[in-house]
Amino acid sequence: MGFTLNLAEDRTIARPTLVPPPSDAHKYSRGHAMVWSGPPLRTGASRLAAQAALAVGAGLVTIIGDRAALAEQAAHVSAIMLREADDKLACIDRRVTALAIGPGAGVGIADIVCALQKREIPMVLDADAITAFAGDPARLFEHLCANDVMTPHAGEFARLFLDIDLADRAAAAYTAAQRSGAVVLLKGPHTHIAAPDGRVAVNRHASPWLATAGSGDVLTGLICGLMAQGISAFDAACMGAWLHGDIGVRAGPGLTADKMMDHIPLVLRGCLHDASADDTGPRT
């Protein structure tokens, strides 16, 4: 599939345009996303991210972790592959095109994050992958680049950027991107995205029904799945935020994170460049 980011003149993200994959597409041509698993009894967040990456179009998705965690994952997934992590991370081969780490991973993962950064694979860092560097953000920033995305909520943002005032969230995201060298997606009712090169955008297409446990993990997976397909970090962050918001708008009351995947096909259908006139979903 091919996604195109659409922005209004005021940098508000609009509905992305989706073109179906070519007839000769195969799973590897659509990208391989990898998600780092949480430990046993904390695998749900990484599983949500992996499921979202698969649903948004990545040709393959693999969860990587230790054997005990993968045994738990295996009881819940079928289309998602599992690989046991080793000390040298040899299981991450050249076919992996994007990687997500953080959801449910535990705050003791700073060394793993740094090791993964050296592989030069586009990464999405969320939750614990951000909090793990609360005492030493410079260590994280040393290896971040414009191909990486951080997706903090306000609390996680403050742990890395103690001196940046969140009163102006657009300015905060911009300053954080300049300092870190990565794309920063600052989550909130209006989600602000900024790239190190100065590009900015805001997603206003969302719903308060997204305020539910695991929703952010789904966002991480959407962005990772888009990046796995070769979409740039900034564009993937912007479009992931809009798609995530559209799930909330369409689903409405009673939405839970584990049900969000059920809405992704309809959200994507609404983005098709030749979407049928009978698609009555909300449009922005």
Summarize the structure.
It catalyses: (6S)-NADHX + ADP = AMP + phosphate + NADH + H(+); (6S)-NADPHX + ADP = AMP + phosphate + NADPH + H(+). The protein contains ten helices and eleven strands. It is α/β, with parallel strands linked by helices and 284 residues long.
Number of strands: 11
CATH architecture: 3-Layer(aba) Sandwich
User: β content, as a range?
Assistant: 15-25%
Q: What gap, in angstroms, lies between the N and C termini? A: 22 Å
Return the CATH topology: UDP-N-acetylmuramoyl-L-alanine:D-glutamate ligase
Mind sketching the topology for me?
Elements (H helix, E strand, L loop, with lengths): L1 E6 L5 E7 L12 E5 L7 H12 L4 E6 L1 H8 L6 E4 L13 E4 L8 H8 L5 E3 L2 H4 L5 H5 L7 E2 L3 H7 L8 H12 L2 E4 L4 E4 L5 E4 L11 H14 L4 H19 L12 H6 L15
Parallel strand pairs: 3-4, 3-6, 4-5, 6-7, 7-8, 8-9
Antiparallel strand pairs: 1-2, 9-10, 10-11
Task: Label this structure with key terms.
single chain, 284 residues, alpha/beta, UDP-N-acetylmuramoyl-L-alanine:D-glutamate ligase, nine-stranded mixed sheet, two-stranded antiparallel ribbon, 10 helices, 11 strands
